Sequence to fold (133 residues):
Amino acid sequence: MSRSHTVVAGSQLELHCRVWGWPLPRVTWHRLGSPFNFSADWRLSLRPGVAMAPRGIAVDNATLVIADVTYADRDMYVCDVTSYVDGSWRSDNGTVFVRVKGQTITFHNVIIAEHSTNETFPSVCLSVRMVLC
Fold:
């Protein structure tokens, strides 16, 4: 599954990974091709989310939060889910492409492009369903 989402530079982005499955899947996040370094970037954090099934159970790391978004955050984000079922690991993932707008670019102290907006963008939900056969 693939989606895209636009966020305004300087705002906070929340990506939610909705999961189904039992045993409850483990959730990890990465940018396409590179892992996150949470200790090196204060803007990155993870929060628990709620499983879709079994309903209402907390899922660790289901929400990725990026504070003070910059143009460098423009990328494909991947939510990986894994669960150990009947003696083997099962996995699935969801992706979202994040675009960033509203970045102010300065060159030799001259503003080349500026965009300001009062628009708000809702958080994105990734629906990842574990198929446990």
Remarks:
- The chain is about 0% helix and 60% strand.
- The first strand starts at residue 2 and ends at 8.
